[in-house]
Amino acid sequence: MRFGFKAVLPLLLLQAIIADVYLQNPRGSNNRLHETSSKRRNANRLFDSQNNNKGGYNTGDRLAWRMGSNVRRQYAMQYYGSGPSSAEASKLMIEWTNQHGCGEPGDKNKCDIVIQYMCSRNGTDEDYPLAWGRIDAALNGHVFYMRDGTSTSTMDYRGPRNRESDSSYVRRMRGNFAYNRSNGGLHETVWWYDACRYREANGGLFTADQDLRKDVQGYVSASRTRQNKDGTRSGYECPEERDYFPYWQPTNQYEDLTRFQNTPWIDLAWLGDKSKCKYIKDNSYNQKGKHRCVMSQSDDKRNYAPYINQQDCESNGGEWVEFSSFIEVLEDIKNQTECTAVSKLDRRNKVFWGQLRSDKDEKKCIVQAPELHCDEAPWSRVNHLGNAYNEMGDMKTPNASRVDVAMPYFPSGEAKRCVMRLRYNISTSDYDPWDTDSKSNDVEDVIENNPEVDVLGNGEELQLALNTAQTGRTFQDRSHVYIVLPRLESMDGKKLYNLNVRGKRGNIVQTFPATEYDFIPDRLVISKNDLVHIQWTGSNSHNNANDGDDGQGRRGTDRHNLLQMSSLGKSYPLEIKDANFWDTVESLTDPQATGEDIAVGFATSGFYCGKEKTDVCEEKYSLKNKRRLDDELDNAPASYFGHVLKFKKVGEMFYMCSRNNNFSNRSQKGALWVKN
Q1: What angle is formed at CA 601 by the lines to CA 27 and CA 485, rounded to 5 degrees?
Q2: Which residues are 162's β-sheet partners?
Q3: What is residue 620's three-state secondary structure?
Q4: Phi, psi at residue 184, to the nearest 5°?
Q5: In this structure, are strands 496-502 and 90-98 parallel, antiparallel, or unpaired?
Q6: Residue 370 reports pLDDT greater than 90
Q7: What whole-number distance in Å separates Cα of residue 222 and Cα of residue 146?
Q8: Residue 22 Rama label (left phi>0; alpha psi -120 to 50; beta)
Q9: Whether the Cβ atoms of residue 550 and residue 618 lie closer than 8 Å to each other
Q10: DSSP per-residue codes, 497-513
Q11: pLDDT above 70: residue 569
């Protein structure tokens, strides 16, 4: 082939080259659950990350010992949602590391970052599916209740056979619903994956010289892509939807609403070339309806079809149906007047009276997410999982890649359980990934798999390492399940900042590609009228096996606390009686707590809930009555909900963690400035 390539014809789809990406805050799982080894046990448990097996964080533990198979001992981070106005944002710092750079001048690659979330109703402990699935599993939560699970096995699935009849389909899917194990992790639904397996792949996509094999139905399905030509299954994720954004099909997780109201994937942020922002926003599913082919409304027939365009759909007896995205549906609102009243109060979301799908006359009060945030990607260098150049207001400190986002607002006032995913797409510049489509497949002048090139001009060739399955590729990480709580009345009109902890047990080599412990954000400047929720989570099974387990306290355990100090350069905390910052705060989550009560809780990671009892802090868990605290926090909880703090006056606090701050080994310190 020639030494050099050319770009061709337009295809306005993101095509994503090999590079790991890891969520650092909120803690990315990389498909880990509660492994006691440095490597994850199952790379396909919930999703296809394409990452190194060593990355990721375990689920949080509620107490001072491992959760084992007891889901009640898991701890999910709990964030208060935003309010209905821009002044009431609940701010979360999302942080990640990506291996092969992004946003770098000179374009060594083309890249973008896609951040999304998916939610369902949180329900109660009784809603968690503790038994095995049954035929009525849809009602018992096995099929729709989003969860981390307690098993590292991938959920079961039985695929279609060639020329499957409607009755065979119904029997097979009833079995798939029943096989949804309660101990298995669940993000997307089995219904969503089966529709993906049945749907035709987009034949207009550039697949280079990769040979995508046909499925049992006799055609290439959406379960196969250029980087997943064999159709390997990861949880119930749809490979084609994972690899391309914006996706052309609705990502609704069932044909209709479930009692858990599982949402589609909601677009939170897109970071890349800002000249593409209009296209990205115009094609985001947040507020733009998308179509799929519907074949039947009957419960005893398959609802979804293989066809992905209107002409093929209708010529084969289907109906081209438009679906609406939603973050929730207000089922208690029964008419347009009531829905309009809700809309006037909600200045964050789009609320309207309309149809969830165009083939049904029934109208509901639908809440759609705001327009996604679109900006330049943080500039990070290639071959490096480390800091990036971030410009965030006045702060220009070196940190991993970051973006500050607002948590969603749910006007129903219900708690939601959610999962966040971050996708990292990078492409070679040998062709334009935005303007190259199927017309360039198998064209060597565009790109060729592992070519040999004659650069000397004498017939002697050099071998290039160029895998066309990886010259446009998507990597991702996902959080564990977290909870979005409805705001308290005392939070009305106020902005809230989430102050958390990142990292896990071990030294910088042992934790890699995760990080050592630190607070995030470790420097925070707020106004006196703002609120701060300080909270952390950790695991009791972060053993690194043969890779080493450096750190203080019991092996394999994460522990944190927060103690005021006189300055960041010091190594000693102040005694609580001398820590005057606590005199300037009140707790909105425990209004009876004094500053000293709050300080005791943070100092002991909730081992003592306060110095004295309150309505929230039982006397038996207070400093006066509970057993002795271990000096390295071994008997303290690994996770702590903390307090939402309100500030009575301006001030500053420098703080540290007594267990993990180990000078010349690791630093876990932070600073909070409260200004007018």
Answers
A1: 50
A2: none
A3: helix
A4: -85, 150
A5: parallel
A6: yes
A7: 23
A8: beta
A9: no
A10: EEEEEE--SS-HHHHTT
A11: yes
Place of tokens 């009833």: 174
133 contacts: CB under 8 Å, gap ≥ 6? 140, 142, 143, 177, 178, 179, 180, 181, 182
Given a cut of 80, is residue 395 above it in pLDDT?
A: no
Residues constituting the chain: 676
The dihedrals phi and psi of 193, each to the nearest 5 degrees, come to: -70, -40
Cα torsion 47, 504, 511, 55 to 10°: value is 0
Indicate the burial class of 655 (C-beta count within 10 angstroms; 0-12, 13-18, 19 or more): buried
Closest CA to 252 of 325, 307, 303: 325
Element (H, E) at 310: helix 310-315
Answer for the pair 4, 453: CB distance below 8 angstroms, yes or no: no
- Which one-letter amino acid corresponds to residue 49? S
Q: Say whether the peptide bond before residue 246 is cis (omega within 30 degrees of 0).
A: yes
Structure token digits, residue 647: 């500030």
Cα angle for residues 585, 590, 592 (degrees, 5° grid): 80
pLDDT band at 1 (very low <50, low <70, confident <90, very high): very low
State both tokens at 116.
């999304």
Nearest-10 Cα torsion for 287, 291, 294, 299: -20
Q: Which is nearest to 197 in space by CA: 117, 267, 302?
A: 302
Whether 94 has a pLDDT exceeding 80, the answer reads yes
Q: Could you read off the pLDDT of 586-622 as tens digits, one per residue?
A: 999 999 999 999 999 999 999 999 999 999 999 999 9
Contact 97, 401 (CB under 8 A): yes
* Angle, in degrees to the nearest 10, between helices 166-178 and 190-198: 140
- For residue 366, give the nearest of 331, 314, 413, 409 by alpha carbon: 331
Average pLDDT over residues 260-271: 97
Residue 577, pLDDT above cutoff 50: yes
Give the C-alpha separation, 525 to 670, whole Å: 11
- Whole-prediction pTM: 0.94
What integer pLDDT is reported at residue 139 of this predicted model?
59
Whether the link from the prior residue into 573 is cis, omega within 30° of 0, is no
Question: Is residue 266 scored above 60 in pLDDT?
Answer: yes
Residues contacting residue 337 through CB under 8 Å, at least 6 positions apart: none
Query: What is the DSSP pairing of strand 482-485 with strand 78-80?
Result: parallel
In terms of Cα–Cα distance, which of 119, 58, 78, 62 is closest to 500?
78
Q: Contact, 511 vs 570, CB < 8 A? A: no
The whole-number pLDDT of residue 393 equals 56
The CA distances from residue 121 to 1, 178, 327, 341, 373, in Å, are 56, 21, 10, 23, 24
Phi and psi at 37, nearest 5°, equal -110, 170
Q: 568 — phi, psi (to 5°)? A: -65, -25
Smallest CA-to-CA distance from 610 within 650, 643, 583 is with: 643
Tell whether the model's pLDDT for residue 172 goes beyond 70: yes
Question: Which residues are CB-contacts of 209 (< 8 A; sequence separation ≥ 6)?
Answer: 441, 442, 444, 447, 448, 449, 468
One-letter amino acid of 452:
E
